[in-house]
Amino acid sequence: MMMEASFDTEESFDDPSCLAPQPPGAVSPAKRQIKEVKETKTTINCVTFPLPGEGPEQQLLKPNEWSYCDYFWTDRKDPQGTTSVAGFEVLLQKQLKGKQMQKEMAEFVHERIKIEEEYAKNLSKLSLSTLAAQEEGTLGEAWTQLKKSLHDEAEVHLKFSNKLHSEVEKPLLTFRGDNFKKDLKKYDHHIADLRKQLASRYASVEKARKALADRQKDLEVKTQQLEIKLSNKTEEDIKKARRKSTQAGDDLMRCVDLYNQTQSKWFEEMVTTSMELEKLEVDRIEWIQQHLRQYTTLRHETDMFNQSTVEPVDQLLQTVDPGKDRELWVKENKTGEVRPVDMDI
Amino acid sequence: MMMEASFDTEESFDDPSCLAPQPPGAVSPAKRQIKEVKETKTTINCVTFPLPGEGPEQQLLKPNEWSYCDYFWTDRKDPQGTTSVAGFEVLLQKQLKGKQMQKEMAEFVHERIKIEEEYAKNLSKLSLSTLAAQEEGTLGEAWTQLKKSLHDEAEVHLKFSNKLHSEVEKPLLTFRGDNFKKDLKKYDHHIADLRKQLASRYASVEKARKALADRQKDLEVKTQQLEIKLSNKTEEDIKKARRKSTQAGDDLMRCVDLYNQTQSKWFEEMVTTSMELEKLEVDRIEWIQQHLRQYTTLRHETDMFNQSTVEPVDQLLQTVDPGKDRELWVKENKTGEVRPVDMDI
Asked: Where is this region: Disordered (chains A, B) (predicted)?
């Protein structure tokens, strides 16, 4: 049974979907434990670890990858040292924080959108002002275009804010809906249940161990009694006690077996699940990176389009001509070009 | 006297500070009038003009220039036809309107400045927000830079608004202080006074013309009386009447002389002053053109500087690395890397 349990674990390691293949010739950690390690272990919160310095050195499951599956086996005592948090909980907290960060980034972008809308509103309002609307001629045309250019600028910033909404804010907001937190809860309960089962099976092991000890003591006593005075009655008792002691030994073996099966199951689930969380975090970072890049792309676009709003103004300013404007105005406003002459007597 | 008066006018034409030199061989309009034009003139509002179609054709003082000095000789009847506005007043109105336009453009720029300040205020406020401040690793750095870039953008827009104030709004506002309107009033009064003087001298001419007519009638009567019955007494009367008639003729000649002098003086002042106003308008248009160009230059600058605020964000976004971020986080948060092992009996 024990061997099988460790093989199970081994198999799950060799499953590439879940773990990188181990270096060739490497022996499953679990196997080694069984073969070599004896009485050099400790159990903390019902999980059994090799004692420091004892037993063979463990290789990381995924060396040089800082994989979640290699660093969260121990429970962490909280500052007060009263309760302790499972390593897996630390991974779940990281996921929840990541979700929160993504939500806050969307909020930030939303604020930026509001600022752009306000700016655009003010610009287009001003572009409609009638100030200096009566300026005439080529100068008047340049001025009119300058006022119009504010409307164009407003359009550019409005377009920016619309794209910010659809191409940055919304994706950041909708990436991983509420299902995400539900999924995390599932993981959480699944791993927590295995820990509870492990605890109860550890309790049975302790109970069985004590029962065996009692039986062995009883057998010892009866054997001593036999040496003192021979009687058939005692012979019977000893046979009976030896049977019970053997039975208690079998019980303990069975309990330890069940305990190790559960611990192997928990081990497998810890490895696969923590690696799923690891994948989720990579996705989150790449998703955010991609959409922050979209933000800077839109900013660049905005600056480019803004440039183009000024060009027609520049062109008309170049054609401003005081002589032409005088001609236009004089043609419209002249009172008379016949000059006075001297009076005769 | 008349010739002198017309010469005065002629000289003032040849004064280059006041007029472009006339085409070679051209004869002063004034001269021609004296030599050729007879009984072909009309006087409107005390100003004497040649009758349409009568007399030699007048050349423009500044051909092809649409110069103010060529097109505002007549007074303009207002729509109701009750009062009439001097051509010079039309030129003054144009100046006042130009001043108003320049003032309104400054106002417009001021409004733009306020919009930029508001935008900058909102951007830098948002850049200080703590949203997603706990994002970690390389992604956290990129995010922090993105938030900082809003502060840089705010700085760019603040710089824009400051330069708009000092390099566009202020020059437009301070160009031609209140002295300008005082100067216009001086011109106005100067020309108006000459018109008043012209009116009073025209009145004296009319009076003298009537006096001469009376005297001539009187002489005629007395001469007829002489033909009927001779008497020394009448001889005396006729001599006396002839003297008075001659005197009245001299009076009229003097009055016409003075009238023409005044009209020549007004003519000169009209030419020189209207050309000063023409120059002022050219200056105004070029001044405004120059400062609206400054506006577009500043707008271009702003777009350029804005571009540069995004670049550091782009760079940090390129270095975002989920693997690196996992390493950093795991190093700080790992609970334990020793894996559980099977329990022994």
From this structure: 1-29
Say how far apart CA B279 and CA B282 lie, in whole Å.
5
Which tens digits make up the pLDDT trace of A281-331?
999 999 999 999 999 999 999 999 999 999 999 999 999 999 999 999 999
pLDDT tens readout for residues A173-226 = 999 887 999 999 999 999 999 999 999 999 999 999 999 999 999 999 888 877
pLDDT tier at A227, thresholds 50, 70, 90: confident
Tell me the nearest-neighbour CA distance from B12 into chain A, angstroms.
15
The pLDDT tens digits of the residues spanning B297-319 come to: 999 999 999 999 999 999 999 99
Inter-chain CB proximity B289 and A337 less than 8 Å: no
Give the torsion sign (CA, A60, A61, A64, A65).
negative
- Give DSSP secondary structure letters for B289-341: HHHHHHHHHHHHHHHHHHHHHHHHHHHHHHT--HHHHHHHHHHHH--B-PPP-
- Closest CB from A37, A129, A337 relative to B108: A129
Is A281 in contact with B326 (Cβ distance < 8 A)?
yes
Mutate one of B37, B152, B342, B345 to test the A interface: name it (highest A CB count within 10 A): B342
The closest alpha carbon to B311, from B148, B157, B124, B155, belongs to: B148
Q: Could you tell me if A109 and A164 are in contact, meaning their C-beta atoms sit under 8 angstroms apart?
A: yes
Q: Residue B262 — φ and ψ, nearest 5°?
A: -60, -45
Q: How many CA atoms are closer than 13 Å to the CA of A194, on its beta-carbon side?
A: 20
Q: Is the pTM of this model over 0.90?
A: no
> Per residue in B166-190, is it b (16+ CB within 10 Å) or e — as a string?
ebbbebbbebbeeebeeebeebbee
Helix (H) or strand (E) holding A50: strand A47-50
* CB spacing of A73 vs B340 below 8 angstroms: yes
Examine the predicted complex and report whether its ipTM is higher than 0.90. no
B5–A342: do the CB atoms touch at under 8 Å? Answer: yes
Distances (CA, A) of A195 to A45, A84, A143, A263: 9, 13, 77, 8
For the stretch A326-331, contacts whose Cβ atoms lie closer than 8 Å and that sit 24 or more positions apart, written own/partner, are A326/B66, A326/B67, A326/B68, A326/B278, A326/B281, A326/B282, A327/B66, A328/A136, A328/A137, A329/A136, A329/A137, A329/B94, A330/B66, A330/B68, A330/B71, A331/B66
